[in-house]
Amino acid sequence: MVSFSPGDVPRTQVMGVVNVTPDSFSDGGLWLDEDAAVAHGLELLAAGADILDVGGESTRPGSQRPEQDEELRRVVPVIRRLAEHGAVVSVDTMRAEVAQAALDVGAQIVNDVSGGLADPDMCDVVARSGAPYILMHWRAHGAVMQQLATYDDVVREVRAELGSRVEAALAAGIGRDRLVVDPGLGFSKTADHNWTLLAHLNDLDDLGLPMVVGASRKAFLGMLMADAQGRPAPPLERDAATGAISVVAAQAGAWAVRVHDVAASVAAIRVVERMRAADLVRREGAGSAAREDQR
Ligand code: PMM
Questions:
Q1: Ligand 1, CB within 6 Å, residue ranges
Q2: Is residue 52 packed enough to be buried (19+ CB in 10 Å), middle (13-18) or exposed (0-12)?
């Protein structure tokens, strides 16, 4: 039964990534074993994750897709066990049948990096389930996606393409209050495109929908943190930069950040929340002082 509602969250959510894959760029192979994946999910929960995002297909540039049966074999038992522990689980899949199987064993959210483009049945499955649907900006599968990283104006085009996926989801019967969008950092995007999108998160706001930001450990952060010889920082050394982006995302009002290192983003979001509270107190103080003056 799906009970999770995107509109109910009090602050930016932290989605902890559980990749049950042999080949994800960031942590491929680490959690391929079922017990290791479940234990990792529980660690992320203990570190403060609000949602666990469980995926069985690597989407790295150049990657080959696993067969559907293999994807099911990877994610279904892990999702079942994490849901039994009480976790809010999102399934990271582009396949309708995988989404359905995940929902059947307790997943509450569908996270589709293709925004419904990869599988024509996806929107129907999501509509029937009533589950929240994270719909990401995407142009093609990993094997060819970076060939399509061409834009005249990346912000305008991502917003327009996301907008048409939103329309398709609505037309399939998914409630607007179930939809969450994601600019898809790194998917058919160069490092410059990613930075431009991050600098303009507010411009994507006019879709009027909650937004996920997924920057964690991506290649553009490796380039940002390159050493003196220009060698990119390896994925496990990109977490501090990821945490900094969680500050940016939370300040822009993101609904969630999707991260591998949960603790840093929990701290980042607490900082932003605490500053917001302080700002509010000062504004209210200024308001009541002004009222006093008028007496
Ligand atoms: N990135 C990856 C996988 N799934 N889902 C959403 N909604 N947004 C993302 O940016 C995103 C995603 C790729 O990263 P990984 O291989 O480290 O999981």
A1: 17, 19, 24-26, 58-60, 92, 111, 113, 134, 136, 182, 184-185, 212, 214, 217, 258
A2: buried
